[in-house]
Backbone:
């Protein structure tokens, strides 16, 4: 079972990363292996033509995966991203983004997982990423 | 439905890539999105200590994903790998390797997917990869 | 020789991606293979502790590499990122970021290169990325 | 200065990885940041059409980067690959392969670098990879 709830996680983000503009991120599901998030589409995320920018997708990936790890390790963990590899596969629709993260390894020093992003209501994924976080030793 | 069967694929490999030493690769499942393969462990794949080498895992990933694409496009396709990103997560056991590939996009010019590898009988995965293949234009 | 100058590129960005907040990005060098950019550090890029967020580094990578390709192809090109792989290696200092991009391939359908980021005045790099852009066919 | 010489490294490989078939790999340059290797082209590396297989390029990358790290840490180090990301950019010629590796970070727990491969005599690179190795704690 995760040691932090979705509400705990969003409060932690709000207090520690006020610049991140995450306030609208919703956590729709969380367990000890997976997370499902929803990002409402805002005008500032849009590129000309109504699509959503690559950096927004990368931010969503990094942030959501951080929350998934934090949920398992608790709020003191200072995990940092060491690798992020993302394939952009389709142009996102101007709709909410749905993201699903999956922990493939939660080791003592490294956490590895993948993250898939869809436009709400569209079957084929927009992007798929793998992420590695380094977990600092306990003090 | 795939246009090539597992038997077609292995025959194609055998005729076109005799050096690849693929003869023992078994295709346990194949559909229009996924493939499941089994690689019996041979001594020549082993490293000291009885583990399986990283290059063997990369070869298995590349070859299996090629078969998955070939199954959809038919034997004339000359798809070539353009990107392979692999995370090695656990030391493989000296057991058969099980690999599962999943097509995330099969476009006109690019195919993208991921591939997960397990040691037979062990729940946690050994490695996870994402692969991109370029699909040449039809003549 | 590039077909667009640094001034052309920044004007293009300003007109087409007003949301991107790129206005302070400076192009210090540009030729037919490489680009060197400088990003002044703003408060909104900072994380607690004065460091620069991962998403800022990913945005800088993606944007700079886009400019490098655009410089070669001209303003009509609608290149889109298909893959971005980044290794975060050191905590950035609260200093300007310096980025250097290098085209390794500029093909008809794909452009590939790498991008290294430093904190100004520090020898060891902060991050290193590889990027692939798909280049649409000429109409 | 590296603590192992090219001759030391090849002897270590020969004794510890006899299956790897590395015997013809030559180390043309080695310092505390970089390595340059040459792989003579053998028939068993070739694919139909005279090109060199992707798995051979991945093996060359992984092995050479391992040697570069080993040269700095000495023969007791049991570094293991945790991530390898490779972009295949051009079809290799049936010529010797030249590879150049570069350490971007040699930390206490992770080493990160990149590796570029050329066909001997051809200016444009065949492939470019980034590699991460985990370095085990000293006992």
Residues:
């Amino acid at each position: 079972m995760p040691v932090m709830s979705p509400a705990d996680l969003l409060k932690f983000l709000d207090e520690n990363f006020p610049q991140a503009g995450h306030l609208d991120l919703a956590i729709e599901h969380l367990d000890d292996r997976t997370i499902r998030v929803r990002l409402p589409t805002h005008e500032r995320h849009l590129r000309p033509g109504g699509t959503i920018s690559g950096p927004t997708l990368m931010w969503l990936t990094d942030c959501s995966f951080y929350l998934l790890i934090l949920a398992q390790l608790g709020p003191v963990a200072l995990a940092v991203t060491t690798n992020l590899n993302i394939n952009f596969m389709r142009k996102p629709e101007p709709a909410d983004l749905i993201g699903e993260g999956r922990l493939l390894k939660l080791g003592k020093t490294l956490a590895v997982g993948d993250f898939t992003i869809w436009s709400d209501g569209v079957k084929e994924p927009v992007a798929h990423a793998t992420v590695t976080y380094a977990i600092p030793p306990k003090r």
Remarks:
- Residues 60 and 99 of chain B are 8 Å apart (CA to CA).
- The two ends of chain B are 23 Å apart (CA to CA).
- Chain B touches chain C through seven residues (CB under 8 Å).
- The mean pLDDT of chain B is 88.
